[in-house]
Amino acid sequence: MLLLYIIFIVYILAVNFYAILLLKSQRDEYGENDSKMNSGDGKLILTAILGGAIAIYVSMFIMRYRTKNLLLMILMPVIAVLNIYFCIVAFRSGFTFFVA
Questions:
Q1: Based on C-alpha coordinates, what's the Rg of the chain?
Q2: How far apart are alpha carbons 84 and 94 in whole angstroms?
Q3: What single string gives the DSSP state of each residue in 41-95?
């Protein structure tokens, strides 16, 4: 059971690290070009759903990038709350929902 907890924690850390790198690479690639700014929203939303919403939301403020995008500013906190809720449910249940 301990191994399952460790794998889950490493997964969450890896997804959050990837989310930070994704946002940084988008900032470096697009820069101030507003025409391409919305082209990476799908990747960010998918990464957020997979568990990186908190890292994306915090990184947006630290890097001062995409804070004017209303979709991301509303969607990221909502997905972050859902991520936290599912993590709490997973740890409280002991990951028993994975066992058939």
A1: 15
A2: 15
A3: HHHHHHHIIIIIHHHHHHHHHHTT-STT-HHHHHHHHHHHHHHHHHHHHHHHHTT
Query: Is the confidence at residue 1, as pLDDT, over 70?
Result: yes
Distance of CA 78 to the CA centre of its chain: 11
Residues 6+ apart with CB under 8 A from 66: 23, 26, 27, 37, 60, 72
pTM for this predicted structure: 0.85
Please give the backbone phi and psi of residue 58, each rounded to the nearest 5 degrees, phi first.
Answer: -70, -40
What is the DSSP secondary structure assignment for residue 99, as one 8-state letter? -
pLDDT tens digit string along 71-90?
999 999 999 999 999 999 98
